[in-house]
């Protein structure tokens, strides 16, 4: 093992020899669309590159801005869709956004019990665990156990609000600004706002 | 409506706006019927009597108007 790869792990699963049914379907539809001139191969490549390029840094910018600017915070809580315009973010999948504010008495947690609905223009592609059957079912049924597994233990006095993105809206959590961040710049604040804090499985920390 | 919420009694958290209903969206009818969408609050304890957590814990989800029914005052105390 090299110096940069010194952790033991089980052999990684190799790529299956044959593509699965859905993969074949995707390839067939894509190739037909290209052959018929509906899209080009480069259009497809460019979209994938774009989707992979959206990162949680965009959501972190929203949170840091809301922490610093009470007027922006009030506007984005009233209507999440102002975020696209005011932060200059391309709302590529026409996401309808609701911003959920954590307070000393309410902690918000986001799940999509159906599949993988997620505020992609702000957070990028969802993590694999967000799409897992275990998270999707347990986050609504046993949210406190799920939070504890992510290292987040909250007293019963703090109400947990689980938000199921089961239809047309997408959700992002506005966490509470941690103590000890007084005087920080927007960039400094954004650096502690991770993807998981905006899904609601953890909270921002200064160290 | 997700299975866990069927038959449950809750409160409207906010009124959203009209959206294409899933019955048409799922069949590729983008100009199909549109209905008002609501955010509904359901108490976790009311959904699951053995729920572990605070009494104020809740689940919020989106439900279209044609899948909601009004209940009489006082009825919300019943399971």
| Strand order of the biggest β-sheet of chain B | 1-2-3
- Protein chain pair with the most extensive contact, residues per chain: A-B, 24 and 22 residues
Globally, the shape of chain B reads elongated
The helicity of chain A comes to 40-55%
Could you spell the SSE succession of chain B in H and E letters? Answer: EHEHE
Can you summarize the main beta sheet of chain A?
2 strands, parallel
* Strand content bin of chain B: 25-35%
Describe the fold and architecture.
The complex is a heterodimer of chains A (207) and B (79). Chain A has 207 residues and is of the alpha/beta class. Chain A is 43% helix and 12% strand. Chain A contains eleven helices and four strands; from the N terminus they run αααααββααααββαα. Chain A has helices at 21-35, 41-53, 57-68, 70-78, 82-87, 120-123, 128-131, 133-141, 143-149, 186-191, 195-199; strands spanning 96-101, 106-111, 159-164, 169-174. In chain A, the strands form two sheets. A two-stranded parallel sheet of chain A has the order 1-4. Chain A has a two-stranded parallel ribbon with strand order 2-3. In chain A, helix 3 (57-68) crosses helix 4 (70-78). The longest helix of chain A is centred in the N-terminal third of the chain and has 15 residues, at 21-35. Chain B is mainly beta. Chain B is 10% helix and 34% strand. Chain B is built from two helices and three strands. Chain B has helices spanning 22-25, 44-47; strands at 11-20, 34-43, 58-64. Chain B has a three-stranded antiparallel beta sheet with strand order 1-2-3. The mean pLDDT of chain B is 91. The A-B interface holds A 96, 98, 113-114, 140-145, 156-169 and B 2, 4, 16, 19, 22, 37, 39, 44, 48, 51-54, 56-64.
């Amino acid at each position: 093992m090299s110096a940069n790869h010194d952790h033991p792990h089980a052999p990684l699963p190799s790529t299956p020899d044959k593509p699965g049914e859905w993969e074949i379907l995707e390839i067939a539809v894509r190739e037909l669309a290209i052959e018929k001139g509906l899209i080009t191969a480069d259009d497809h490549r460019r979209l994938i590159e774009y989707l992979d390029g959206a990162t949680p840094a965009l959501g972190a910018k929203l949170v840091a801005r809301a922490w610093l600017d009470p007027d922006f915070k009030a506007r984005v809580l009233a209507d999440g869709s102002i975020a696209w315009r005011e932060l200059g973010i391309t709302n590529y999948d026409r996401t309808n956004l609701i911003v959920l504010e954590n307070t000393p008495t309410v902690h918000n947690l986001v799940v999509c019990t159906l599949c993988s609905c997620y505020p992609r223009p702000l957070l990028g592609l969802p993590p694999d665990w967000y799409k897992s059957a275990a998270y999707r079912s347990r986050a609504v049924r046993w949210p406190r156990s799920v939070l504890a597994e992510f290292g987040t233990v909250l007293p019963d006095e703090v109400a947990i609000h689980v938000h199921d993105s089961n239809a047309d809206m997408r959700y992002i959590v506005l966490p509470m600004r941690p103590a000890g961040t007084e005087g920080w710049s927007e960039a400094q604040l954004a650096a502690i706002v991770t993807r998981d804090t905006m899904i609601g499985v953890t909270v921002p920390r200064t160290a | 409506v997700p299975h866990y919420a069927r038959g449950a009694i809750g409160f409207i958290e906010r009124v959203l706006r009209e959206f294409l209903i899933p019955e048409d969206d799922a069949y590729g009818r983008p100009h199909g019927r549109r209905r008002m969408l609501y955010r509904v609050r359901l108490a976790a304890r009311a959904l699951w009597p053995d729920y572990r957590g605070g009494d104020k814990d809740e689940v919020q989800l989106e439900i279209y108007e044609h899948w909601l029914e009004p209940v009489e005052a006082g009825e919300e105390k019943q399971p």
